[in-house]
Amino acid sequence: MRCSCPDLPDRTGYPAFVTGEIGMAGTLYLCATPIGNLGDMTPRVIETLRSADLIAAEDTRNSIRLLNHFDIHTPMTSYHEYNKVEKAHALVEQMRSGKSVALITDAGTPAISDPGEVLVRFCQEAGITVTSLPGPAACITALTLSGLSTRRFCFEGFLPAEKKEKAEVLEECARETRTMIFYEAPHHLKRTLGELRDALGDRRVTVCRELTKKFESVMPTTLEEALLFYETNEPRGEYVLVVEGKSRAEKAREDRAAWEELPLEAHVRLYEEQGMDRKTAMKQAAKDRGLSKRDVYQALLPAEEGNGTDSPRHGE
């Protein structure tokens, strides 16, 4: 017998135009599950898993232990990286017929670095309601423990396996000013730390391991020191790396240095060729180089006098 859940929306209230067809459609519930500590399972998720018509799980063999622990007997089907497109079509059809589906991943929140994003998109395209039941997420847990800036951050997940794509991503990360969050498996940890150090320099990093579990550890350090540590300590467990972004001051210095490699007249001409008038081009070049407009005018004074350009007024 199913348990009722007052938090679940009334599917009978969905108008026909929402689903694109006459009749009632089901709902996709994104259910966050514990990343290690079973005490983090929310009552709302438990009731939703009991009340759903079907649970789509990343690994049914892993998820059955979770369901048994909470005495949940809802039928399960597998939904993972290798069947995400074909199975998404099948699940959408079941929801179009009125069934409700609860999506769970092995740990954490579905659709984050996870094939669930495909199912969410398919449901939205089909006019099926999608709702998320918040709960554990390793990326947010690690960020709050990192001691690094949390005001602006970006989630990178696992670095790409393909070498060219990985190089492009690392190049982008080297210029990133926000705090960055990466996932990594133990057997790739040292390689990834080395790649991050080579691409970003010796940034601050907080290495989080086995979050919420018995052997949880949080190590604020630097990329270089982390590499040295794991030369003598074998990586074990699942890791989240929270890496400091490039400071805005450092980025501004690098940008100015890059512009200084270009002769000043060529710098101004570059903006003129893009349609700026001489005065505006000089102002933009001055901003790029961290100079005043008067400094730029004085440096180009012979050229300005030669073409009859008026001198900028004092303070411009």
Write up what this structure looks like.
This protein is an alpha/beta fold. The chain has three domains: 11-136, Tetrapyrrole methylase, N-terminal domain (Cobalt-precorrin-4 Transmethylase, domain 1); 139-246, Methyltransferase, Cobalt-precorrin-4 Transmethylase, Domain 2 (2-Layer Sandwich); 249-298, no CATH class. It has helices at 16-19, 43-51, 60-69, 84-96, 116-125, 138-146, 163-175, 189-200, 223-232, 248-260, 264-273, 278-289, 293-299, 301-306; strands spanning 27-31, 54-57, 76-78, 101-104, 129-133, 153-157, 179-184, 204-209, 217-222, 239-243. The strands form two sheets. The protein has a five-stranded parallel beta sheet, sandwiched between helices. It has a five-stranded mixed beta sheet with strand order 6-7-10-8-9. Strand 2, helix 3 (60-69) and strand 3 (76-78) form a beta-alpha-beta unit. Helix 7 crosses helix 8, helix 8 (189-200) runs antiparallel to helix 9 (223-232) and helix 11 packs across helix 12 (278-289). The longest helix has 13 residues, at 84-96.
Structural classification: alpha/beta
Task: Give, in spatial order, the strands making up the sheet with the most strands.
Answer: 3-2-4-1-5
| Rg from Cα | 27 Å
Low-confidence stretches: 1-23, 310-316
Question: Largest sheet, described in full?
Answer: 5 strands, parallel
Number of strands: 10
Order of helices and strands: HEHEHEHEHEHEHEHEEHEHHHHH
What is the number of helical segments per DSSP (H or I, 4+ residues)?
Answer: 14
What percent of the residues sit in helical stretches (DSSP H or I)? Answer: 40-55%
CATH class of the largest domain: Alpha Beta
Query: What is the assigned CATH homologous superfamily of the largest domain?
Result: Tetrapyrrole methylase, N-terminal domain
User: How large is the share of residues in beta strands?
Assistant: 15-25%
Span of the ends, CA to CA: 78 Å
Note the overall shape: elongated
What's the overall average pLDDT, rounded? 87
The CATH architecture of the largest domain comes to: 3-Layer(aba) Sandwich
Structural domains: how many: 3
